């Protein structure tokens, strides 16, 4: 049995919370294993004054950590699943997905007001095109301003008066015990979250069978099936943080339901559908692909072409 595992993580307080959460899970199941953390700065941590949609989405918060994994500098990497591209580097795999926190977006405001209670021209901060498009569909006359930095930095910018309100993922706010600042929760019916939101992914080298056996014990099967469904949906759409795409999966009565969205940047076009599927990996993969195809066939392809700024023929989207 392995006696030591090194966990690669970003340096932010939230990332360290996530890494320590996984560390505690491992040590709870395997007390003889000594788990240590290795902090790694990523591209997304270096560049904090440019919108995420403008610096690309190919592992902006994960590449340097994955490079360390491939060099054998670390044994596993802990990521927010929503940050992890659908295509992983050769030789790496997701060994487990932990139980999902509530995968919704939330609104924080100094004045303890809800989103629609603000007057015209309120300044709303968020870092996500997905959020902005859906928020514009609710209220088009607000000013939506890019919001970068780690979670505490974003909250500090709100509290200093730079924004009237900000929109964040509930999971991070809850994990850092800042949920007392929440003035409104957006249900998935109002704002669809990002693919994988609320879940943590544990990545490791495929060839490391010993680590694989250990990490597999941390996997939450329902969350794993949800992640398979949503990530197949995103992979089919070839999307990332440069495109307003949302997804939400729910498991009830032995079935899985996936709701997906493609939105125009101005929020005027929202293509949204829902499909059900069986609760097994093959069916979940097919469900994600089927819903993506349905969105593309019903106006989503035109939105993606418009956003990309260049013509993409139908075959590039597999329809």
Please explain how this structure is put together.
This protein has 319 residues and is of the alpha/beta class. 35% of the residues lie in helices and 24% in strands. It has helices at residues 13-29, 43-46, 52-55, 63-70, 129-138, 151-159, 170-175, 209-216, 221-237, 281-308, and strands spanning 4-9, 34-39, 76-80, 92-97, 105-109, 123-126, 143-146, 165-169, 182-186, 200-205, 245-252, 255-263, 270-278. The strands form three sheets. A five-stranded mixed sheet has the order 2-1-3-10-4, with helices on both faces. Strands 7-6-8-5-9 form a five-stranded mixed sheet, sandwiched between helices. Helix 5 links the parallel strand 6 and strand 7 (143-146). Helix 9 runs parallel beside helix 10 (281-308). The model is unreliable at 310-319 (pLDDT under 50).
């Amino acid at each position: 049995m392995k006696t030591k595992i090194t966990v690669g993580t970003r340096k932010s307080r939230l990332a360290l919370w996530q890494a320590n959460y996984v560390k505690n899970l491992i040590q709870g199941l395997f007390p003889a294993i000594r788990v240590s953390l290795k902090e790694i700065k990523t591209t997304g941590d270096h560049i904090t004054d440019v919108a995420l949609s403008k610096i690309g989405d190919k592992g902006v918060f994960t590449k340097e950590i994955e490079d360390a994994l491939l060099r054998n500098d670390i044994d596993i990497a802990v990521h927010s699943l929503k940050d992890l591209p659908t295509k992983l580097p050769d030789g790496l795999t997701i060994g487990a997905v932990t139980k999902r926190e509530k995968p919704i977006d939330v609104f924080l405001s100094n004045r303890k007001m809800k989103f629609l209670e603000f007057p015209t021209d309120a300044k709303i901060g968020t870092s996500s095109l997905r959020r902005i498009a859906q928020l514009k569909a609710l209220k088009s006359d607000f000013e939506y301003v890019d919001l970068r930095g780690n979670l505490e930095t974003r909250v500090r910018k709100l509290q200093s008066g730079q924004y009237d309100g900000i929109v964040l993922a509930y999971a991070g706010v809850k994990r850092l015990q800042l949920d007392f600042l929440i003035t409104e929760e957006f249900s998935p019916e109002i704002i669809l979250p990002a693919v994988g939101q609320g879940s943590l992914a544990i990545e490791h080298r495929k060839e490391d069978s010993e680590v694989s056996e250990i990490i597999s014990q941390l996997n939450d099967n329902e969350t794993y099936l949800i992640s398979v469904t949503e990530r197949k949906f995103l992979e089919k759409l070839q999307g990332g943080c440069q495109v307003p795409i949302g997804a939400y999966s729910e498991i009830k009565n032995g079935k899985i339901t996936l709701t997906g969205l493609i939105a125009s940047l101005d929020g005027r076009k929202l293509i949204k559908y829902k499909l059900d599927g069986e609760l097994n990996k093959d069916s979940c993969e097919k469900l994600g692909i089927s819903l993506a195809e349905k969105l593309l066939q019903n106006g989503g392809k035109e939105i993606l072409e418009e956003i990309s700024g260049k013509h993409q023929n139908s075959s590039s989207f597999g329809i």
